[in-house]
Amino acid sequence: xxxxxxxxxxxxxxxxxxxxxxxxxxxxxxxxxxxxxxxxxxxxxxxxxxxxxxxxxxxxxxxxxxxxxxxxxxxxxxxxxxxxxxxxxxxxxxxxxxxxxxxxxxxxxxxxxxxxxxxxxxxxxxxxxxxxxxxxxxxxxxxxxxxxxxxxxxxxxxxxxxxxxxxxxxxxxxxxxxxxxxxxxxxxxxxxxxxxxxxxxxxxxxxxxxxxxxxxxxxxxxxxxxxxxxxxxxxxxxxxxxxxxx
Length: 246
Known about the structure:
Distance between the termini: 30 Å
Strand content: 15-25%
Number of strands: 10
Order of helices and strands: EHEHHHEHEEEEEHEHE
Largest sheet: 5 strands, antiparallel
Helix content: 10-25%
Number of helices: 7
């Protein structure tokens, strides 16, 4: 399961590897090197949901659908079978790095089809050989697929259709997609609550509905509001979607 930011939608110290051990015959030749921050990967959506990615990185100048923005290394391996522990590590170590990895513009991030962090642990063979790291990636959502990313994944306004956020699908299951793909709703406005203090989920939801209605009138079709964690990390905009079709 991948961890994503967001309430309605969705949207640390690194411990070094130290001891070098003698490999057992079963682990000989297995590469346990941690992935590189800034590396690129060509994943399908199904591959993105897997626990591990066994394929080598690709050149960022070539087609790719994920970008590694954080690698957490451990002195001692975490309990790989305990997803709650792993999710907690990702929340503490990777989530705070998302905004910086995308250029720092919170409004641009929330108006984009980017999703992060998608994380991967070493393969079983790598774990048996002593690999102890978690790789955190960002991806570009395209509804039922992952879309290509540019070599530089950072975001700035205005967003191109290939990075902008739209939604497609059946009622209550509208999937995030880039606006370059068919869609029913397009994110057009980002509105900020007039207080630095988080107002609570219900109050913020009601305020978001009212503000999006004011902005879009009869064309108002969908909305998102930030959760407490998003707010803490600077993602404090509610997003208004205009009913459209492409």
